[in-house]
Amino acid sequence: MAEMDLTPKSAVAAFEGDGGGYYIWSFPALGEANVGAGKLVLKPSGFALPHYADSAKLGYVLQGEDGLVGMVFPNTSEEVVLKLKKGDVIPVPLGAVSWWFNNGGSSNDLVIVFLGETTKAYTPGLFTYFFIAGTQSLLGGFSTDFISKSFNITKDEADEVTKNQTGVLLVKLEQGKTMPKPNALITQKLVHQLTVSATLTEKEFPFLNQAGLSANLIKLEAYAISSPIYTTDSSVQVIYVQARGGGRVQIAGLNGQSALDAEVTAGHLIVVPRFFMVAKLAGEKGMECFSVITSSRAVLEDLTGKTSVLRALSPEVLQISLNINPELQTILQSKIN
Fold this sequence. Notes:
Elements: E1 12-17, E2 20-24, H1 28-33, E3 35-42, E4 46-53, E5 57-63, E6 67-72, E7 80-84, E8 88-92, E9 97-102, E10 110-117, E11 129-131, H2 144-151, H3 155-163, E12 170-172, H4 184-190, E13 192-193, E14 198-200, E15 214-220, E16 225-231, E17 237-252, E18 258-265, E19 269-272, E20 277-293, E21 300-302, H5 309-312, H6 315-322, H7 326-336
Helix pairs in contact: 2-3, 6-7
């Protein structure tokens, strides 16, 4: 089996305009692990045109306090409008049509990172979007005659429907344009605030089941370490290093070999293949990482935590397995405890 290059990577611009930009990560490890990532930056009054995608994903709000997202879920005929702010997690199920808007002040960008799985994607490792409006709208792929007859409108009206919006992906709305108000009750049900270190599965946030994904947030103080962890099923982790600080990441893989030992900084993306083990060491400014796991019921095993397998093993088995004396075994297990 060929080794996977797990070197941390930064995003590159896929689109930039007056309304903001969309940035993607594209490198072989994403495709090999069937995960993808993108980052949406909306300037004030920036609007991401309605679209659906070929992949389920989670959005995590990195910046902004007054964002809006509108969604129409498959097999429904109603739009739900949700309020977003920094620290929010929002699942985006496969096939859901969504739009995104920055309703904030004149200087505050809305920044959302999207992480998800691409097992059903056209291109493994990449999210592909299908737009309902704009110059890349799917409606533009039909003739005027088809559009006019489908909607029972005139051909002139059909031309306006398909050609009036000259924006691509993102546009900036004019001052005075009003947007629908978010529904606070539905927001509480479909959006989850994640601001402290925790693993978020469908047990804590049932809506994650619709995307088939879990989330994990780790915040480390200066020079603190998160012990080696691994998933107990065949799920993959894709990790985004947030704006605060940086540090060092090590991944151990097949045959006990080091798969990665690298310095990471804000904006880096890291893929942890299934069953591989990962540990993080914060730098002088601390370290924050948001990760998505490709299972809504993810179980992360921690080698130095209270549920550590090393703690669970009997003293005799641990001594024999590690070939250590009883004194060191006692020290090791007491430190874990």
